Amino acid sequence: MANISKLKYCSFFLATLPFYQQAYAQQCSINLNYGVIIDPKHIRIVDKGKTRVQINNTKQLFIRGREISLSPEQQQLLSNFSVGIRQQVPEIVSIAIEGVDIGLKAVNEVVAGLTGENSASQQKVQAKFDELKWRIRARFNQSANNYYIAPQDLNDFDEMFTGEFEQEIEAIISNSLGTILEAVGQSILADDNNTEYVGETRIATFDKRLTTISNGLELQVAQRAKALDKKAALFCQELTHLDELEAELHQAIPALKDYNLIETLN
Predict the structure, then answer these.
(1) Which of 12, 83, 92, 122 has the fewest CB atoms within 10 Å, counting from its CB?
(2) What are phi and psi of 164, to 5 degrees?
């Protein structure tokens, strides 16, 4: 009977994995052709580790280390573009991390629901998630108002984490499954003198809790993923407008045409 129960919890937990993957429905048909480094005073467009374009305080422009003299009109275009970059690059980081967070919270709530809120098992899993999220954010946001984004296709936001964090996330989910099964097994089989009636009662209690978690979790994840999709769609729209502004900037400053940062794919 215990083995059947464990199998049931295992099946349910594995069923939460699509919730984790569901958070990655966002798509944006835009490329970043160069890396971007932002700090409070500078924006740098980087290619193969070298700064090709640098904007100082939104109005001073350097291309390959040489300052470009700008008219007031050119300075205004450059300023508008700089403000847009400062607004949108942090959004890339925010959306990607929120997508990860939806999946991790879903897994964490399963653990908390089956082993108890603030249980040792739940706290152990939460600590791993918190550490991972901190390191993910540190990867792109080194300190306050300092960001780095590598060249990439924004068609799938989750690709930002492929390789570097994907296997670690999967390992945490796998270990969480072991934590759940261990806690459930200990609860059902803790006392060898339990009668069959007591064991069945405990299983029934877990089953009821399982159903409650399942019903609430699917709705919650769907709502959060839908909200994130809307946020990503707005981001893509804003980035498209920024691409149009960049085209104006290239017309006004032809030397910038060789460094097309944002590319909208039709």
Answers:
(1) 83
(2) -70, -40
Say how far apart CA 7 and CA 264 lie, in whole Å: 48
Q: Sign of torsion, CA 118 121 126 127? A: positive
The terminus-to-terminus CA distance of the chain in angstroms comes to 57
Residue among 56, 58, 81 at smallest CA distance from 249: 81
Contact (Cβ atoms closer than 8 angstroms) between residue 206 and residue 114: yes
Give dist(CA 257, CA 123) in Å, integer. Answer: 52
Averaged pLDDT, groups of 10, the chain, 266 residues long: 46 48 58 92 94 94 96 95 92 80 76 74 80 78 78 68 64 70 61 51 62 68 81 89 96 94 86
According to DSSP, residue 64 is labeled T
Q: In this predicted structure, what is the pLDDT of residue 70?
A: 95
C-alpha span between 152 and 31 (Å, rounded): 6
Q: What is the DSSP string of 113-142?
A: HHH-TT-HHHHHHHHHHHHHHHHHHHHH--
Name residue, tokens 């759940």: 180
Measured distance CA(253)–CA(257) in Å, rounded? 8
- Which two structure tokens, joined as six digits, stand for 86? 């400062």
What is the DSSP track for 176-211?
A: HHHHHHHHHHHHHHS-TT--HHHHHHHHHHHHHHHH
Domain count, the chain: 1
Q: With beta carbons less than 8 A apart as the criterion, state whether 18 and 41 touch.
A: no
Secondary structure letter of residue 161 according to DSSP:
G
pTM of the entire predicted model: 0.74
Structure tokens at 75: 């300075």
Locate 248 and state its tokens: 């104006």
Q: Which two tokens mark 54? A: 């640098």
